[in-house]
Amino acid sequence: MIDPPPILKTWPRLYGAVLLALVVETVLFYLLTRSFH
Amino acid sequence: MRPADWAVLVATLAAIVIYGVWKGRRQKRLAQYLLADRQLQWYTVALSVMATQASAITFLSTPGQAYTDGMRFVQFYLGLPIAMVILAITAVPIYHRLKVFTAYEYLETRFGLPTRALLAGIFLLQRGLGTAMTLYAPALIVSLVLGWNIHITTLVIGVLVIIYTSSGGTKAVSWTQTHQLLIALGGMAVAMVVAVRSLPEGVGFTDAVRVAGHMNRMNVIDFKFDFSTPFNFWSGLFGGLFVALAYFGTDQSQVQRYLTGETVTQSRLGLLFNGLVKVPMQFFILFVGAMVFVFYQFVAPPLFFNPVQSKSVRAGALAGEYRQLETTHEATFAAKRAAASQLVAAMESGDGAAAAQKKRELQELQQRDAETRKAASALIRKNDPRADKTDTDYVFLTFIMQNLPTGLVGLLLAAIFCAAMSATASGLNALASTSVIDVWKRLIQRDLDDHTYVRISKGMTIFWGVFCIVFALFANRLGSLIVVVNQVGSLFYGTMLATFLIAFYFKHVGGKAMFTAALISQATVFVCAATLNVAWLWWNVIGCTVGVAAALLLQTFLPPARTPVHAE
Q: Domain B3-21+38-296+403-486: which CATH class?
């Protein structure tokens, strides 16, 4: 039995948060790149 | 270096070594020595995982990469968060349940001894060479820029690492790494503040970002697909995913870090924190490089940043030609500085047309300067055919030595030494673990008491430390082989990852099929690396795909594997 994570209550939610952060970072990087072209 | 810098450097390094020895005292049992008794919390696991990957080269070369090529190198890390999630779901629970000491121990439960021995052997080969390089590369750069003796620099870093790693084992390594990483990142933040504050009056942080952007240093994402370029979105996402899966899932230097977690939850949180923080951290380090680039638009940079090669060509038969290039470089710099100041003024006043014109002018001047630097590089190669034609690795250290105030130079050097020590320490720690658990305890002497195995582990740590120092001392005689050694991980990671993927997900595949497939996969990667013009990140994908496909195909001709006792 694996304990739930200390934040976001379930592991799938925490995994989703990590992947969402990656998507947000990619979008921000893209906007930064585009703003100078 | 002034006395205050020496004081900061020596005090920091001494504090790290004493802290490591103290933190790792009284290690009696093998699980204590190799896995810190599986008692560490997620934050120590996370910082240890991050410090293991962030060697001195990360802090020395990455800013230089942004200086010469912009920030697109960050794309290399885009696959890493996905890999952290996959490993948190799959590898962490399996390793914890089996209570293994090394990743290769698990392979015996799935495929038998030959596959375990093959993978452990591959690991010892590639990590042994890799750890020697993490010792050699920063020692080389620091020695060239500061005029120190490279042998002494290598020996000092190597011996300091051996002292606390052999005496304190994994606990000492993990705890010192948390402090070392914080010192290194703190040093980078200081360098960025100094770079921005040293800009001329009227040029602020926002202006610096805009100048960097207009000179193509904010080129973070490139969606254009190209097999031959190493850093674009697709190679970063897919190639980077395979590299990260292999590195964090199968390389004992990383697996050992999260095996120290007290529970599955602590290990998982450590990996997920790495997945969350790694990309912004690399962005930050590259951003420091971009700010150093802007700094050098207002303060004259050398034509070529490697001081030894510049000195050599100035003293040789090509001195006249090199001096001409320096004159051109100085004239271009003066024009660039004027154009950059005018660009900032135009942006401040909101004059879009003038800003656009100055931007074009600045880009043309930058192009002209790049051609001058290319010609200088060619001269340097003509003067010394063995010389490295790039000076990327020397940009950041030159900036530190020439522009930081007294005391901070010592702090930044301490940061670089800390990074070198932390990556080397986890390498030695993992090499010792694999040598003892997968070789000595499995193949040589199986029934010794725990205390004896701890003593053997300490001996193995010293052995691998000496191996790395000796290899590093002779590395400068290997010439272009150094490049090969740097990419050696990608030569083997595909095969290693294929083996673990089959172990985790294809339970019907047995040892014979996997062992043969691993050999086929490895041979294919060697052939591809030697004959195809494919960027090295893709070697991981090729090796893994061939390994998995070959194992599945071969298994169709063989009787199904017995379900191992420990596997799900």
A: mainly alpha
